[in-house]
C-alpha cells in the first residue's frame, strides 16, 4: 500500500521505510523557527536546562510580532530574543525584517521534504514548499532545541482537489476561505490538508502559501502541496540549492480519510464574517457593510502579488476621508520590490498608510475601538483579537480588501 | 496525581480560541499569576474569580483552537483550572497543556451529562469520569501512553531534565 507525501516525509525523518496514519514516531527536525511572542518562555526554560543548542544553523529566531514594539513591556519581551541569539551565537537571526513565515520561505531556508516546526500556528505555511511543517508550543520548542527531535502522531490526510479557472479578482484566499466554510473550524483537526488539482498546479507559490497558511484554521496539523516545476522555478530564482525530491508525492494507492473536490470556476470572492475564519460567505451577502479600516498584509496575504493586486485596484483613486487603509508588506524584500515597482508610491498617493513589514495589524498594532469594523487579508477574526472585544473583523482577499478600501464598505471586486 | 475529585466551576461552548484565553493586547508579562488574572477576561470578566478555589472547566468542540501561544494553558492552570474536559481539543493546545502538566480529557458527551456545580471524580489513566452529583459514569479518552511518562514527571521540562541527566550517567 502506498503512502501520502506527509507519510513519506515523516518516514524518512524517523529513519523508517514506511509509516501509517495513527502511528507515533520521533522525527528529526530540519528547521526550528521561534517568534518573539512565544520566545521568552522557550528561552527561559532552555537556559534552565543548561545544554547547548542541538544545531545552531537550524534555529531561526525572528522578531516579528512586537514589531514595532510600541511599549516598554514589548521592548522587554523582544530583548529576550536578541539575548538568546547573541548568547547562543545563532547565525540566522532576523530582527524586524518581516513576518517569520515570509522570511523562511523567501530566504530558501525550508526545502521540499524537510520537517519544520515553529512556535507559531501559521508555520503550516511552508507546506506549500512540499515540506512537513507545523506549529508547536514553547515547551516543545525547548525540547527541540535540546534534542533536535520531536514526536508526532502520523496524521490522516484529507485530499482536496481543486479544478477550474478563477474569475478575475478571485484569488487563492477565496479558495481556502470557501473550503474552511465547507469543513468548519475543526474540519481537519489532527489531520493533513493535502491540496492538488489543476488550479493548484497553475497557481504561483505565493498563492499556494496563502492556502497552506490557513490550514490551521480548520485545525489541521499541516497543509501540503507536492513540489513541482513552479516550486523548482521559485527556488531557482532565490538561488536556493535544489534538492532531489524524487518520490515527494502521494502514491496513487495512498490512503485518504476523506476526499473533497472543488470546482472554483464560478467561485465568488469570499468574506469570513466574525468571529471565525470558517464563517465564509459570498461577498454579495455582506456587500455594503460599512467599515472603519482595511489591512492588506500579514503572512497570509502580504506578498508581492497581493500588493500588486491592491495597487492595480487602488491606483489613481483616493481612499475616502475618515477611513484607514493599512498596507503591511510581509517582509523587507517584499517592501523593496513593491517600492521599486512603484506599487507603494501609487498606494501612498491614494491615501493608504504604508506600515513597516511585520505581523502588524494581525494582532496588537492597529487596535480598534468599540463597534469598529475592519476588513483584513489576514487569517483570524476571533473576538477581541484586534482590540476591543466589541470590534469586529472580516477576512477576505487583497482584491476584495482593495475594492472595499475605495468605497469604505465591503465591495465585490468583480464589479469595479 | 492520577485520581482527582473536583467541582465543575465553568462551562464553555465550542471553538474557544487561545486568543480569547490570553489576548495579545494584554500579554505584557509571562508570569503565570498575571496570565491567570487576565485569562478569558474578554469572554467572562469573572472567570478567574470563579476558578479561584480550583476546579474543572468543561467545554465543547475545538477547545483551544487558533494560536500556538502556550500562555493559554499556563493562564488556565494559574487561574485555578485543575482539569479541562472537552468534547474535542485543538491539537496544539492539547500538546501544550499536557506539556505544562494541565490534564485534558476528551469526552464527547460531557456537556449533556454534566454542568456547573457537579462534582466529578476522574481517573486520568483510564479516562473514567464519575459524575457523583448525578450518579453517572462517563467514558473519556485517557492521556496517551506515550505522554504518560512525561506527564507523571510533572510536564515535558522536568521529564527532559530527567532524561538528559540519565543520558549523562
Rounded radius of gyration of chain A (Å):
20 Å
Domains of chain A (count): 2
Radius of gyration of chain B: 16 Å
Strand order of the largest sheet of chain A: 4-3-2-5-6
Number of strand segments of chain B: 7
Q: Provide the helix percentage of chain A.
A: 25-40%
Q: How much beta of chain B, percentage-wise?
A: 15-25%
Can you give a write-up of this model?
The complex is a heterodimer of chains A (416) and B (169). With 416 residues, chain A is an alpha/beta fold. Chain A has two domains: 5-263, Aconitase, domain 3, CATH 3.30.499; 270-415, Aconitase, domain 3, CATH 3.30.499.10. Chain A has a five-stranded parallel sheet with strand order 4-3-2-5-6, with helices on both faces. In chain A, strands 16-15-14-17-18 form a five-stranded parallel sheet. Chain A has helices at 5-13, 39-49, 72-87, 100-106, 138-147, 172-183, 198-201, 205-213, 229-238, 283-286, 298-301, 304-314, 332-340, 343-349, 398-407; strands at residues 24-28, 31-35, 59-63, 94-95, 115-118, 132-135, 149-153, 157-163, 192-196, 222-224, 258-263, 270-272, 280-282, 293-297, 324-328, 353-354, 373-376, 392-395. Chain B is an alpha/beta fold and 169 residues long. Chain B has one domain (3-168): Aconitase, domain 4 (Alpha-Beta Barrel). Chain B is 35% helix and 21% strand. Chain B has helices at 18-21, 32-38, 47-51, 71-79, 91-99, 110-113, 145-152, 156-168, and strands at 3-11, 55-59, 81-86, 104-106, 119-123, 128-131, 136-139. Chain B has a seven-stranded mixed sheet. The longest helix of chain B is centred in the C-terminal third of the chain and has 13 residues, at 156-168. The interface between A and B is large, with 48 and 39 residues. Chain A: Residues 8-408 form the Aconitase/3-isopropylmalate dehydratase large subunit alpha/beta/alpha domain. Chain A: Its cofactor is [4Fe-4S] cluster. Chain A: Pathway: Amino-acid biosynthesis; L-leucine biosynthesis; L-leucine from 3-methyl-2-oxobutanoate: step 2/4. Chain A: It comes from Mediterraneibacter hominis. Chain A: Catalyzes the isomerization between 2-isopropylmalate and 3-isopropylmalate, via the formation of 2-isopropylmaleate.
Amino acid at each position: 500500500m502506498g503512502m501520502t507525501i506527509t507519510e513519506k516525509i515523516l518516514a524518512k525523518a524517523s529513519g523508517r521505510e514506511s509509516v501509517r496514519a495513527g502511528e507515533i514516531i520521533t522525527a528529526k527536525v530540519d528547521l526550528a523557527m521561534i517568534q518573539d511572542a512565544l520566545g521568552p518562555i522557550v528561552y527561559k526554560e532552555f537556559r534552565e536546562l543548561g545544554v547547548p543548542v542541538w544545531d545552531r544553523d537550524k534555529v531561526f529566531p525572528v522578531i516579528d510580532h512586537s514589531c514595532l514594539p510600541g511599549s516598554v513591556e514589548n521592548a522587554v519581551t523582544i530583548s529576550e530574543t536578541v539575548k538568546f541569539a547573541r548568547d547562543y551565537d545563532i547565525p540566522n537571526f532576523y530582527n524586524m525584517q518581516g513576518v517569520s513565515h515570509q522570511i523562511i520561505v523567501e530566504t530558501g531556508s525550508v526545502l521540499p521534504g524537510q520537517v519544520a516546526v515553529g512556535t507559531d500556528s501559521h508555520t503550516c505555511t511552508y507546506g506549500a514548499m512540499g515540506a512537513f511543517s507545523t506549529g508547536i508550543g514553547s515547551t516543545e520548542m525547548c525540547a527541540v532545541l535540546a534534542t533536535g527531535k520531536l514526536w508526532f502522531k502520523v496524521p490522516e490526510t484529507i485530499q482536496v482537489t481543486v479544478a477550474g479557472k478563477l474569475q478575475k479578482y478571485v484569488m487563492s484566499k477565496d479558495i481556502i476561505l470557501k473550503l474552511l466554510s465547507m469543513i468548519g473550524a475543526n474540519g481537519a483537526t489532527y489531520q493533513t490538508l493535502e491540496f492538488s488539482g489543476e488550479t493548484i498546479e497553475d497557481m504561483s507559490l505565493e498563492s499556494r502559501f496563502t492556502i497552506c497558511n490557513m490550514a490551521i484554521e480548520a485545525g489541521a496539523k499541516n497543509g501540503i502541496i507536492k513540489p513541482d516545476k513552479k516550486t523548482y522555478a521559485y527556488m531557482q530564482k532565490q538561488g536556493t540549492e535544489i534538492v532531489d525530491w524524487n518520490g515527494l508525492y502521494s502514491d496513487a494507492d495512498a490512503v485518504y480519510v476523506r476526499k473533497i473536490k472543488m470546482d472554483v470556476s464560478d467561485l465568488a470572492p469570499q468574506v469570513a464574517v466574525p468571529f471565525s475564519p470558517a464563517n465564509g460567505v459570498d461577498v454579495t451577502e455582506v456587500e455594503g457593510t460599512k467599515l472603519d479600516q482595511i489591512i492588506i498584509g500579514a503572512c497570509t496575504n502580504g506578498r508581492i502579488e497581493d500588493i500588486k493586486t491592491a495597487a492595480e485596484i487602488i491606483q489613481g483613486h483616493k481612499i475616502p476621508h475618515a477611513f484607514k487603509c493599512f498596507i503591511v508588506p510581509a517582509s523587507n524584500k517584499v517592501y523593496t520590490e513593491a517600492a521599486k515597482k512603484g506599487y507603494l508610491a501609487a498606494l501612498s498617493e491614494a491615501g493608504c498608510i504604508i506600515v513597516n513589514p511585520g505581523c502588524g495589524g494581525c494582532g496588537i498594532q492597529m487596535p480598534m475601538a468599540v463597534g469598529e469594523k475592519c476588513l483584513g487579508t489576514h487569517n483570524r477574526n476571533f473576538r477581541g483579537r484586534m482590540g476591543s472585544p466589541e470590534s469586529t473583523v472580516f477576512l477576505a482577499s487583497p482584491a476584495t480588501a482593495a475594492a472595499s478600501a475605495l468605497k469604505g464598505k465591503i465591495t465585490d471586486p468583480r464589479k469595479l | 496525581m492520577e485520581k482527582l475529585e473536583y467541582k465543575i466551576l465553568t462551562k464553555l461552548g465550542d471553538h474557544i480560541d487561545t486568543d480569547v484565553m490570553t489576548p495579545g493586547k494584554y500579554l505584557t508579562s509571562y508570569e503565570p499569576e498575571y496570565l491567570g488574572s487576565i485569562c478569558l477576561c474578554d469572554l467572562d470578566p469573572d472567570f478567574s474569580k470563579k476558578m479561584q478555589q480550583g476546579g474543572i472547566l468543561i467545554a465543547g468542540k475545538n477547545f483551544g483552537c487558533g494560536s500556538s501561544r502556550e500562555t493559554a494553558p499556563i493562564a488556565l492552570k494559574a487561574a485555578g483550572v485543575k482539569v479541562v474536559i472537552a468534547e474535542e481539543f485543538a491539537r496544539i493546545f492539547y500538546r501544550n497543556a499536557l506539556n505544562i502538566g494541565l490534564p485534558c480529557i476528551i469526552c464527547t458527551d460531557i456537556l449533556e451529562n454534566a454542568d456547573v456545580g457537579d462534582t466529578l471524580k476522574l481517573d486520568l489513566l483510564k479516562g473514567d469520569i464519575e459524575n457523583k452529583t448525578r450518579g453517572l459514569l462517563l467514558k473519556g479518552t485517557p492521556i496517551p501512553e506515550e505522554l504518560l511518562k512525561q506527564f507523571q514527571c510533572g510536564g515535558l521540562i522536568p521529564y527532559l531534565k530527567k532524561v538528559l541527566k540519565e543520558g549523562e550517567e
